[in-house]
Specification:
Layout (H helix, E strand, L loop, with lengths): L1 E6 L5 E7 L1 H8 L3 H9 L6 H14 L5 H8 L4 E9 L10 H15 L4 E10 L4 E2 L13 E6 L5 H10 L3 E4 L10 E5 L1 H13 L5 E6 L8 H15 L7 E5 L6 H6 L9 E4 L2 H13 L9 E7 L12 E5 L1 H16 L7 E5 L1 E3 L4 H4 L1
Parallel strand pairs: 3-4, 3-6, 6-7, 7-8, 8-14, 9-10, 9-11, 11-12, 12-13
Antiparallel strand pairs: 1-2, 4-5, 13-15
Helix pairs in contact: 1-2, 1-3, 5-11, 7-8
């Protein structure tokens, strides 16, 4: 509730009226229900009525009492976005651009339902499997649900405390086969199948892989998933990896990238785990006097932040639909909070973008 102060004829300020939703309704000549719907953001209000309400609300500087709404609905209209920040990485962390793709898409989707996304970063050292932040404050969060984003290892204590909190939760791009977790993931198969067909249609048979060593359990599942899925597609055509090269965690990419082109016969295609690996592979190729895109095909799995069809269409990439995954996770939580029972696990298919040559771009 707000109060309007006016300067009286007696020469001093006095309280004139209380600004409530009833007052706003009377000024706009609508019902209190209509005013309530306006603040909830529902679409059942005409444009003219909405404009009139906006003008009155702005004039009196009114805003709804969120504390009262929380007590009445028993909801906070807030979702915690739990970002696992691996400090043992030289790059990445919770500010990595590809993680912001998930966050931005989820925040936009939730805002359309009058929900806010609150960032809750949590530091770990995944290489040593050590938690660096305390979970004490996390357990007392005033939120209606939890959206989890992890780039690798997640401390089991986090799963335990989320379970004890008893509120809806969902993880993005995380596969934990030993846990019953709701999640939204990529379906890697479509993009990988298209990639294999594309390389074989170009006559490429000496296909190399360049990615992280996935022997360690604290790495992200996608390193092994992509390697094994493409290996399986090649085997369907009686082919094996020509030269798989792996990089150990915490080591520079330069030495293993050079291994890709060792020997008298170089690969005629290199598939890289992500952009960083692709850039290292292409630099190593130039060191061996080989031209990416001419002497061999260069492909990587691309985050949407690094790819624009208008400027990067010369690159062939497997696209990862991160925005869609973020949106799906947010909407899953919203449906759970509303008491509905959406599918606990969803997948968004990857797809292949075949780059145009410079000659085609001209």
């Amino acid at each position: 509730m707000l109060w309007v102060y006016e300067y009286s004829s007696l020469g001093h300020w006095q309280i004139n009226m209380a600004i409530t939703q009833k007052f706003i309704a009377e000024k706009a000549q609508v019902s209190q229900k209509t005013v309530s719907q306006y603040f909830k953001g529902t679409a059942r209000i005409s444009a003219a009525t909405r404009a009139r309400l906006e003008s009155i609300v702005e004039h009196y500087g009114y805003f709804p009492n969120m504390a009262a709404r929380t007590m009445k609905t028993k909801r906070f209209n807030r979702i915690a976005c739990l970002l696992i920040y691996n400090t043992s990485r030289s790059r990445g962390g919770f500010l990595a651009p590809h993680l912001l793709n998930y966050v931005n898409a989820a925040a936009v989707a939730l805002s359309k339902h009058d929900y806010a996304l609150v960032i809750e970063p949590f530091k770990v050292d995944a290489d040593r499997q050590v938690m660096l932040d305390s979970l004490d404050s996390f357990a007392t969060l005033s939120v209606d649900g939890i959206l989890g984003i992890a780039g690798g290892w997640v401390p089991p204590e986090i799963d335990q405390i989320i379970d004890k909190m008893g509120i809806p939760s969902v993880w993005l791009n995380r596969r934990a086969l030993d846990l019953d977790l709701a999640g939204v993931n990529f379906d890697e198969a479509p993009g990988i199948r298209q990639l294999a067909d594309h390389l074989l249609s170009l006559g490429r048979k000496r296909i190399a892989w360049f990615g992280p060593d996935f022997a360690h359990l604290n790495g992200h599942h996608s390193a092994k998933t992509r390697y094994e899925a493409l290996k399986s597609e090649l085997q369907k055509h009686q082919l094996e990896w020509f030269r798989p090269v792996f990089n150990r965690k915490g080591h520079t990419l330069c030495p293993p990238a050079l291994e890709l082109f060792n020997g008298p016969t170089p690969p005629d295609a290199v598939v890289s785990y992500n952009l960083g690996y692709r850039e290292a592979a292409e630099q190593a190729a130039l060191h061996s006097n080989l031209r990416p895109g001419y002497d061999f095909q260069s492909v990587h799995f691309a985050s949407s932040w690094e790819f624009s069809p208008n400027t990067h269409d010369f690159r062939t990439v497997v696209m990862l639909p991160e925005e869609e995954v973020g949106k799906d996770g947010a909407l899953y939580l919203y449906e759970r909070i509303q008491g509905n029972d959406p599918s606990p696990s969803q997948e968004r298919p990857t797809w292949l973008h075949v780059g145009k040559t410079f000659a085609e771009n001209q």
